[in-house]
Each structure stands twice: as C-alpha cells, then as structure tokens.
Design a protein that fits this description.
The protein is 39% helix and 15% strand. It starts with 6 loop residues before the first helix and ends in a 9-residue tail after the last strand. It binds S-adenosylmethionine (SAM), 6-(5-methyl-2-OXO-imidazolidin-4-yl)-hexanoic acid and iron/sulfur cluster (SF4).
C-alpha cells in the first residue's frame, strides 16, 4: 500500500520558515476546529512506579533509581473522587495511567474497568494508558465505555531502540491496531528533547499521519528530565521546536486534537500561546501530570482568561 505522506514531504514542511508554517497550520486548524477553544484534561496515575520497561525518559521504570518507587494501585473510590474534582474544575477528559508493560487479565484490570465505568458515569471522556493491550482486552475496555486509549510512539522507528530496549516499535503499532479494532479512539504521540534528530521527529509524525484512520488525539510532550533516568541531563527543548512540531502535526492530521502535553512548566505563557496558535487545542490541567509537576490551575486559568480562550464545555449527555 502506498503511504499517504512521504519522508521528503514531511521534512519539507518541518523545514519551512516558521511564520508561513504557522499560517498554514492556523488555516487548517480553523477549517476543522472551533477557534479559541482548548480542552482541559486531567491525568491521574492509578498505578505508579515499578514498571518493567526501560523507557529512558521515564521516572516510573524499575530500571532506574529515581524518586518514584512502586506504589499500590489506587482504589476505585479514590479515582472517582479525583475525577469528580477534575470535572468541577472544568476538565472534560480524565486520563488514567498505569506503569505497566502490558495489561494482564485479573483483578487489577477488573479494577481499571470499574474506574472507566465510574468516570463515564460522571459524564467525562475516559482515557487510559496501560501499556500493551490485546484486542480482547481493548474490547472489554470499550464495553466499559472507554473513549480513548493512549499509547505513544514516542520517537521514530530508527531511534526507538536508543530510547527503549524492552519492546519494539512494532509492538507499539500492534497495540494501536488492537485499540482501533475494538472501536476505541486512538491517542498517540511522542516526546521531543530526547536527543533525536529533526528526521526522527518528522518520521514519528509521518508514521502517525499515515495510520488509517489517523489518531483522533496526538499528544506532543517536551521531555521532563528526571534525576536518575538516562535522559536526566538532556538540554531543555527549544520552545520554537515544540511550536514547529505542533504545526506540522496540525497540518498532517487536521482533525486530530493536538495536545500540548508534558513540559509546560518550562514554557513561558507566550510560548504556550504560540503552541496554541500552531494548532494545539488541549492541555493537561491540574497540579500534577503522572509523577511530575504541571502548571498551577490558577496560572492556567489566568492564561486562558488573558488570551480570551475558552475551555471546551462538557459534551451534552448522549445516553440516559
Ligand atoms: N506505561 C504506559 C505506556 O508506556 O504506554 C503508560 C504510561 S507512560 C508514563 C505514558 C507516556 O508518558 C509515555 O509514552 C511518554 O510519552 C510520556 N512520558 C513519560 N515520562 C515522560 C517524561 N519524563 N517527559 C515527557 N513525557 C514522558
Ligand atoms: C502523554 O503523552 N503525556 C502524558 C499522558 N500521555 C499519559 C503523560 C506525561 C507524563 C510525564 C511524566 C510524568 O509525570 O511522570
Ligand atoms: Fe513503564 Fe510507561 Fe514508564 Fe515506559 S513510559 S517505563 S512503559 S510507565
């Protein structure tokens, strides 16, 4: 099958002067999305630390000595209480993360299914990120009402082995396929600032954009360097690179919600707004991502107010 986007097309976009690139991204954005609107999503780590994978960026990997240790899984009531609070503060999507290499059938997975049902009962979009899943497990998540499954490609196929050795790029693609077959929407993106080349960045976006159908949601993370991980000493990401990535993602995947994800605590208000100008229409909202800090809620509200943006309203209930 011929691919929709070629290497040279994507690299050509990435290398365009920033202002015309932004013009195009903005035009695409306005054609497909309400202008000025940003979705607030809240993250919660429901099972923290002790993960068997060796992702070089991740504080939750048991391969590295970080300040995040293995913790017990949260109980359903705790999670639902957090989701209720997130809703009261204006979030419309609640994303639950587990530091698992893969989902194993049994009581822990059953608990996640109950969490999903509880979050859906509150009228929120429900997303989980649990590592690899089979098609059958993805179907059970779909039956519980799950809207989206997050599973990032993180980087290019070529660069993958230098970041993660305990699984392959194809493992990652297989899970995305299982999620898609189960009728759950796909949330998949990556990280910049891990020492990757511009070609790696373009190839990651190209792989995502060539998926058919394309992911409905694309998180773009800037590395949060964490003490004890192999990437702890990476230099900070140039905010303009983040803007460029978001603009290219917006042009390649016009309908996707592009999420300005990890790394916002190191960005100025102006840089965050440029990311939104480039097509980002979602942020993680709340004091914490999974294990690392996120901007204060008051600062985000001030940014939204001062820029005249509006937080996406909750979707009216479609079922009774
Ligand atoms: N264990 C599951 C998995 O890997 O799919 C779910 C949780 S994992 C923490 C979700 C995503 O968070 C990763 O794929 C990665 O893109 C992002 N992430 C983890 N640590 C990060 C860091 N230090 N900086 C930026 N993004 C990070
Ligand atoms: C995504 O792409 N970014 C979020 C969400 N998907 C699950 C996670 C960011 C995690 C940042 C590091 C941490 O807080 O542990
Ligand atoms: Fe585990 Fe996910 Fe962290 Fe990788 S990114 S070490 S799979 S929690």
């Amino acid at each position: 099958m011929t691919e929709k986007f070629t290497r040279s097309f994507v690299r050509g976009l990435y290398d365009r002067p920033l202002l015309p690139l932004l013009d195009e991204a903005r035009a695409v954005h306005r054609q497909h999305h309400p202008d000025n609107e940003v979705q607030l999503c809240t993250l919660l780590s429901v099972k923290t630390g002790g993960c068997a994978e060796d992702c070089s960026y991740c504080p939750q990997s048991s391969h590295y000595d970080t300040n995040v240790g293995p913790e017990k899984m949260l109980d359903v009531e705790h999670v639902i209480a957090s989701a209720r609070r997130a809703k009261e503060l204006g979030s419309t999507r609640f994303c639950m993360g587990a530091a698992w290499r893969e989902v194993k059938d049994g009581p822990a997975f059953d608990r996640v299914l109950s969490m999903v049902r509880g979050v859906k009962d509150l009228g929120l979009e429900a997303c989980v990120t649990l590592g690899m899943v089979t098609e059958d497990q993805a179907k059970r998540l779909a039956e519980a009402g799950l809207d989206a499954y997050n599973h990032n490609l993180d980087t290019s196929r070529e660069n993958y082995r230098s970041i993660i050795k305990t699984r392959t790029f194809d493992d990652r693609l297989r899970t995305l396929e299982n999620v898609r077959k189960a009728g759950v929407t796909v949330c998949s993106g990556g990280i910049i600032g891990m020492g990757e080349s511009a070609d790696d960045r373009c190839e990651m976006l190209r792989t995502l954009a060539n998926l058919d159908p394309q992911p409905e949601s694309v998180p773009v993370n800037a590395l949060v360097p964490v003490e004890g991980t192999p990437l702890a000493n990476m230099p900070p990401v140039d905010p303009l690179d983040l803007v460029r990535m978001i603009a290219v993602a917006r042009i390649l995947m016009p309908k996707a919600r592009v999420r300005l994800s990890a790394g916002r605590t190191s960005l100025s208000r102006e840089a965050q707004l440029m990311c939104m100008l480039a097509g980002a229409n979602s942020i993680f909202y709340g004091e914490k991502l999974l294990t690392t800090p996120n901007p204060d809620e008051e600062d985000d509200m001030a940014l939204i107010r001062d820029a005249g943006l509006s937080a996406m309203p909750p979707r009216p209930a479609t079922s009774v």
